[in-house]
Design a protein that fits this description.
The structure is a homodimer. By secondary structure, chain A is mainly alpha-helical. Chain A folds into two domains: about 240 residues, Citrate Synthase, domain 1, CATH 1.10.580; about 100 residues, Orthogonal Bundle (Cytochrome p450-Terp, domain 2). Helices cover about 55% and strands about 5% of the residues of chain A. A three-stranded antiparallel β-sheet of chain A has the order 2-3-4. In chain A, helix 3 packs across helix 6. Chain A starts with 16 loop residues before the first strand and ends in a 12-residue tail after the last strand. The model of chain A has no long low-confidence stretch (mean pLDDT about 90).
Chain lengths: ~400, ~400
């Protein structure tokens, strides 16, 4: 390959644009995140998660009638098939929520009579089943593994508030519900990240959207991707108190490690989502009367950035996981649900990408993702191996 | 991007090498397929599927002791958790086998105490669970959806023979079992095809191998990928008899369509696997006393190739799906199990790729697949959209 080219071999395709997309713009240098033309700051402040789902799926912000009917359809789809509860009940309590979610997602297809990739309206309908269904599944599994009865969805509540209600069985604090809603908006979409690329790739085979979303959940479950917010929280707990921050930073940087939640593949500024999450984390701590984790995060940010500047002479910035960890923790969300909550939100973006992959008219005809690989097998030198029957092998 | 570069935008990454790999070499021009140094012709003729699994997972052909202990471990892992049968029993009979397989695969983790990505030997152990478990799952689902009791695995049988036995409840014809074994060898691996790329991509997030394989199953379920052998069989049935071939070809080529099973993204010769499958399909027809589908395929090949040459002035070649359809059909495998049978075999290659992605030492440190996309949103012209609150939208 030409040396002038963007290198693609063994680089994880970093910096290589593989497709055109109308869904999301991540401007790494400017620190801007844009969903279908709209800045994340505007959306997080002014739009509900349902509104953002409409925007992502239907390409435009809805008017109030459009939103009301979308919202109604989503509420109707919160009820998942009874067989899914039966399945969840039979699983070992020790299974991780992400494994359970990946297993249960393909089964949501049961009540979707028109599932398939035949028409755009069918796929949009399936997307609603997925967005609504994942929420019910995650909450139900958390109840069941704790020997509690699942809480049935409450259609008087928003998507965000209903999830918190199904999780705890209590109507959530309105401010907490609003923060959770904003949290869902912030995590909904981020262009071709690993799980979204997985969803698009599966969709490119013309597999149906349930198969694509279940695949994306598998991708998100990886510690390097959706698992990062859990690792931030574990780090905070490991540090434990502010006076231990300096030693922690020294230790981690001495050993060539990274401070979880600092640094991002794309942003060269603070992640715009982190800037929105930080005050929410602070306020959530105030509501619960425990701002310890927020304050620890804040101080770790300051000191971590200083240490990076001093030792490596470069700036490092907060990513989305840095403040979402303490926010979700303050909301009482169990740590191993942080990644499922990420899925609960990102499913909206995944669905938009599956639809774009399968139905985009502006872009050239979508084609199966089928890259190559350079064969470097060296078992028999430059030649093929001579086959020896098993009886003669030694 | 430089015009001299291999184009990647909206091309599905065709022809773009994204990684180096020691697993498989597909030589499109020469029509050669090589697994870890060995030609597919040698392997299909002389090696069992178990031997090929060893080769793919452990990088070398096993000696008889190594193979015997691998085989024993695989046989022990044919028994899947009881909860999986319970789950299958509760599913609607109408669910497709690929959807069921994708849902059930993450649940195989239940009996795998050391699942995770911590050590290579743990992942190799998980790979055995997956290779053995998929077979039991597919057969059990086919029995249950037909109101039959699942047949428990028979450890006196090979992997191939045992699958046919679990499917029908009868000990398979030895020649049929041998052909099925060869069929599994032929489908085991094919470099960075769509589903394998999906598996690697999920693995690159350091997700565990069950999550990666479940994702790959979703990818394989797409009609453009693993679903192609089913479409070949449907086409054969649509044609029905040899005298209708000419009209079928004319009709499909007039309308700009493709003849299923002819043409491949990589091979510029007959697919080496098709050359091996064709006589197996013929002989299987002879065994069952019905060579009709083989003969129809053969004549369609001849006439299809002639028509392509005449109309488009180019050669077209058989791919793997062309003769596997009539072979599997003659074996009595239900058509909608063709793709699951593909998975039953390819899981071995997927596992090898997951392991290479997570543990390869020769290649540079694996990095998360995270490509870019070019944002082409045009909702508000070249500028960002101005956010208007919902009350003021119209």
């Amino acid at each position: 390959m030409n040396d002038e080219c963007t290198p693609v071999m063994n680089t994880g395709l970093r910096g290589v644009d593989v497709a055109s997309s109308k869904i999301c713009d991540v401007q790494g240098k400017a620190g801007k995140l844009i969903y279908r033309g709209y800045r994340i700051e505007d959306l997080a402040k002014n739009a509900s998660f349902e509104e953002v789902c409409c925007l992502l799926l239907h390409e435009r912000l809805p008017d109030d009638q459009t939103l009301a009917s979308f919202d109604l359809r989503l509420k109707q789809k919160r009820h998942i098939p009874e067989t899914l509860f039966t399945m969840l009940k039979h699983l070992p309590r020790s299974m991780t929520p992400m494994d359970v979610l990946q297993a249960a997602t393909p089964l949501l297809i049961q009540t979707d009579e028109n599932a398939g990739t035949e028409t755009l309206s069918d796929v949009l309908n399936s997307a609603e089943h997925l967005i609504a269904g994942l929420s019910t599944l995650i909450a139900a599994w958390d109840r069941l593994r704790n020997d509690k009865t699942p809480v049935m969805p409450d259609t008087s509540l928003t998507h965000a508030a209903n999830f918190l209600y199904m999780l705890t069985g209590e109507p959530p604090d309105p401010e907490a519900a609003a923060f959770f809603d904003a949290g869902l908006v912030l995590h909904a979409e981020h262009s071709f990240n690993a799980s979204t690329f997985t969803a698009r790739q599966v969709a490119s085979t013309k597999a149906h959207i349930y198969a694509a979303i279940a695949a994306a959940i598998g991708s998100l479950s990886g510690p390097l991707h959706g698992g990062a917010n859990v690792r931030v929280m574990k780090m905070l707990m490991e540090i434990g108190s502010p006076e231990k921050i300096d030693a922690y930073i020294d230790n981690i940087l001495d050993s060539g490690g990274l401070i979880m939640g600092l640094g991002h593949a794309v942003y060269q500024t603070d992640d715009p989502r982190a800037l929105i999450l930080a005050p929410m984390s602070q306020r959530m701590g105030e509501i619960t009367g425990d701002t310890r984790w927020y304050e620890l995060t804040k101080e770790l940010e300051t000191k971590g950035k200083q240490a990076f500047k001093k030792r490596k002479n470069r700036d490092i910035f907060c990513n989305v996981d840095f403040y979402s960890a303490s926010l979700f923790y303050a909301m009482g969300i169990p740590m191993d649900l942080f990644t499922p909550v990420f899925a609960l939100s990102r499913v909206s973006g995944w669905c938009a990408h599956v639809i774009e992959e399968q139905y985009a008219k502006a872009a050239p005809k979508p084609t199966l993702y089928r890259p190559g690989a350079t064969y470097v097998g060296d078992y028999c030198g430059p030649d093929e191996c001579r086959f020896v029957r098993i009886e003669e092998r030694k």
